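ugh ok fine here u go
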Amino acid sequence: MFIFHDFFLETYSKSALSTLFFVSNLYFWSTGEEYAAFSSLYHPLLHTWSLAVEEQFYLIFPFVLFFGNKLFKKKLIYLILFSFVVSLIGSQVTVSFMRHLIFILYRQGIGK
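structure:
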């Protein structure tokens, strides 16, 4: 049986709710918690951020394909390629200029 302090119970409840609705990546980003930080030991659901990203992809991408097919018919491949290029550029900009938005082990030299 676990007995949480009020603060830990509150943060655990918020992280559990965000995990339930597949937005834990947004929740942990808003808290400023780093994945490899010592304080992450007090967030037992921190690992669910990657599952949230995966679920968001699985929930959003089929709608993009469906409505893209309805709106663009024969140009769907161009929509997919455009999305790929925008995603690639966005990830490079994030890695280059906004390191605080990504969970990497920057202090240990990974990703330099």
